[in-house]
Design goal:
By secondary structure, this protein is α+β, with helices and mostly antiparallel strands. It is 45% helix and 13% strand. The strands form three sheets. The chain has a seven-stranded mixed sheet. A two-stranded antiparallel ribbon has the order 1-2. The chain has a two-stranded antiparallel sheet with strand order 3-10. The chain is globular.
Length: 322
């Protein structure tokens, strides 16, 4: 059976949103009537903050992203219902659409799946995310560099929950005969053998953290090129040569100024079956010149300081392989 691209959105969007910055639970407090009250006031304070410098803007940007992730991590099962109902063809990043609007539209389309209480909770959360995204857009326009600034290095690093992979020494990256997004043939045997180290990054087009880390991966690719290495992207929507998905991926890559190779392969290949068992995005593997996976996969954006340090260590290990 062909690997369904829809399965990539089932739990993926929720996981990447939560793992992108931290895994922080939303706290509550009691009001004067003894009823639970969310921490909306802290969001309101951040929304009203006007930074005076790029550094302040970066700090505020990361704080707002944390708040957005808190909202999505309050009830994972409920939000997962939303992402199950999402349309894989919806462009919620690159066409300027507010992510909150995307969520609101999805929630409304699946309204009959929720109780009245669940529906109200989801709408309230999506409305908050819409406000936060609006503020993030303003910050990006005024301080473009803030979107690429690393978050606090002391934040909780993403874990590898949800990733099904073989671990241990000398685990080969699964084989494939694929193509790049321009239609050129790419074989796994040649891809790895001709590079001292290959950083393989799994992403998909409507994954916000995935798209957000593309510039960092482009920078890494240029650094690795000096050492005989490379970065290779695998957009899971493009498996089996989906023409629409390839066009959309190429558009995103072009807008982000990405020059490193992105590839696709058949979903029923060894690599395709391997990909079907990845449920957290972005996920990054380091592969040595012998085609073996080095260490454990890195789950979450490498824009995180701890993720980046882990990646650097794995790259160094791969470069030592004879």
């Amino acid at each position: 059976m062909k690997f369904s691209k829809l399965s990539k959105i089932l739990t993926v969007v929720l996981l990447v949103s939560v793992l992108a910055v931290s895994l922080i639970a939303c706290s509550t407090s009691k009001d004067n009537n003894g009823e639970e009250q969310s921490t909306d006031s802290s969001i309101s304070t951040l929304m009203a903050t006007e930074p005076d410098s790029a550094d302040e803007a970066s700090k505020l940007y990361n704080q707002l992203m944390e708040k957005e992730n808190e909202i999505l991590s309050t009830d994972t099962e409920l939000w997962n219902k939303v992402f199950l109902a999402s349309n894989k063809n919806s462009k919620m990043i690159e066409d300027g659409t507010n992510y909150g609007d995307f969520l609101l539209t999805t929630i409304e389309s699946a309204k009959d799946q929720f109780t009245d209480e669940e529906y109200k909770k989801l709408v309230a959360g999506a409305e908050q995310i819409k406000e936060i995204e609006g503020k993030l857009t303003i910050l990006e326009q005024k301080y473009p560099e803030c979107a690429n600034a690393p978050s606090n290095g002391d934040s909780v690093p993403a874990n590898s929950a949800g990733v099904v992979s073989d671990s241990g020494d000398a685990t080969s990256f699964p084989s494939f005969d694929g193509k790049d997004l321009d239609g050129n043939d790419v074989k796994s045997s040649d891809l790895f053998a001709n590079s001292n180290v290959t950083v393989v990054n799994y992403w998909f087009s409507t994954c916000k953290p995935c798209v957000g880390e593309l510039p960092e991966l482009e920078k890494l690719n240029k650094e690795l090129a000096k050492k005989g290495g490379q970065v290779v992207g695998i957009n899971t929507f493009t498996l089996d040569g989906d023409k629409t998905a390839i066009s959309e991926a190429k558009d995103i890559l072009s807008k982000k100024g990405i020059t490193y190779k992105n590839i696709w392969f058949d979903s029923n290949s060894d690599a395709g079956k391997f990909t079907s068992n990845i449920f957290s995005f972005p996920t990054t593997y380091v592969v040595d010149k012998n085609g073996n996976i080095v260490g454990e996969p890195i789950v979450g954006a490498i824009t995180e300081n701890k993720q980046k340090k882990t990646l650097e260590k794995l790259i160094d290990q791969a470069l030592q392989v004879k």
